[in-house]
């Protein structure tokens, strides 16, 4: 692995002018897999930490995010999934985050989102991007195999539960989540699917509901309250939904949704946000607008369905 110099490759990806080679990506995925294998389904995170939602291949906006929040290792980060699809630069976005994870494994947490799957990436852009940039399915195969090893959830200081989607009727406790077999393609149903796909009700409706997404559930404030009480938690922090202001409270401030892809799909006009949790567990939100740099590749989006995750 003489040519796998993490610091040099990180600078290379930041520049965005040169992709990693297939061999370098193979080394990257091997190293990242070793790191992810050491982490639990409920990864424990210490404060202070900055929590981020979906970034969806908007590489220049990820760089803007680091300008706002600080660059690792100066700032600790927890990303709640959906690094690929939709944006023009999913490969660069994923490579940068994985390189930073390898270099600063205790300062960067990378959770799995519903887009970190084989099925979804074949529809919403990542597969096509890998084929266009590398001319073969090999890179996509390596990345999607790596997705299976990403942790599903995290807990900050035993108080803030972080995940991509939402709660599950099959999972009452964090110990239930720890017992899941995560190293697989995201199932179409069941508790692992629910964690990556579910959404909170945006009204006063209690209990569980059928998700309009066709996967996971919707859940009411009573469900959130019971889950938090069962697990001595103060907050559920999640991503997964486009929020025009970048973040949104619901369920009597027991749930916060964070979305970190500004002007999503380069046309939605939304702000993005970060949540900073300090060493005393105080929470601050920072909103930001898109980077003035957008990159190229308008053709990437024209063929993808209009469906917001």
Detailed description of the structure:
Helix 2 packs parallel to helix 7 (138-147). The chain is an alpha/beta fold and 309 residues long. It contains eleven helices and 14 strands. The chain has helices at residues 6-15, 22-37, 59-69, 90-103, 118-121, 126-134, 138-147, 174-178, 191-197, 221-230, 299-302, and strands spanning 42-45, 49-52, 77-79, 108-110, 153-156, 160-163, 199-200, 208-210, 217-219, 235-238, 247-250, 255-258, 272-277, 283-288. Helix 3 (59-69) links the parallel strand 2 (49-52) and strand 3. 32% of the residues lie in helices and 17% in strands. The radius of gyration is 18 Å and the shape is globular. The strands form three sheets. The protein has a six-stranded mixed beta sheet with strand order 1-5-6-10-12-11. A five-stranded mixed beta sheet has the order 4-3-2-13-14, covered by helices on one side.
């Amino acid at each position: 692995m003489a040519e796998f110099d993490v610091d040099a490759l990180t600078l290379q990806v930041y520049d965005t002018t040169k992709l990693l080679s297939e061999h370098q990506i193979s080394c990257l995925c091997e190293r990242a897999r070793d790191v992810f294998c050491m982490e639990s389904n409920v990864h424990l995170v210490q404060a202070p930490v900055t929590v981020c939602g979906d970034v969806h291949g908007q590489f220049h906006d990820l760089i803007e995010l680091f300008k706002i929040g600080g660059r690792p290792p100066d700032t600790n980060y927890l990303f709640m999934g959906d690094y690929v699809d939709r944006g023009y630069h999913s490969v660069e976005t994923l490579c940068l985050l994985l390189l930073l994870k390898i270099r600063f494994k205790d300062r960067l947490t990378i959770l799995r989102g519903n887009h970190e799957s084989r099925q979804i990436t074949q529809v919403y852009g990542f597969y096509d991007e890998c084929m266009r940039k590398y001319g073969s399915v090999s890179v996509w195969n390596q990345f999607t195999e790596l997705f299976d090893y990403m942790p599903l959830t995290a807990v900050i200081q035993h108080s803030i539960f972080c995940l991509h989607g939402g709660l599950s009727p099959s999972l009452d406790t964090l110990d239930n989540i720890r017992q899941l077999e995560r190293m697989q393609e995201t199932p179409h149903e069941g508790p692992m699917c629910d964690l990556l796909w579910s959404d909170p009700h945006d009204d006063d409706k209690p209990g569980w509901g059928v998700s309009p997404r066709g996967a996971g559930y919707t859940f009411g404030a009573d469900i959130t309250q019971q889950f938090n009480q069962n697990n001595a938690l103060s907050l559920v922090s999640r991503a997964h939904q486009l929020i025009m202001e970048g973040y949104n409270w619901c369920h009597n401030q027991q749930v916060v949704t964070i979305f970190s892809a500004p002007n999503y799909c380069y046309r939605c006009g939304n702000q993005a946000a970060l949540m900073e949790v300090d060493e005393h567990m105080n929470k601050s939100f920072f909103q930001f607008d898109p980077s003035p740099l957008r990159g190229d590749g308008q053709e990437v989006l024209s063929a993808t369905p209009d469906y917001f995750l």
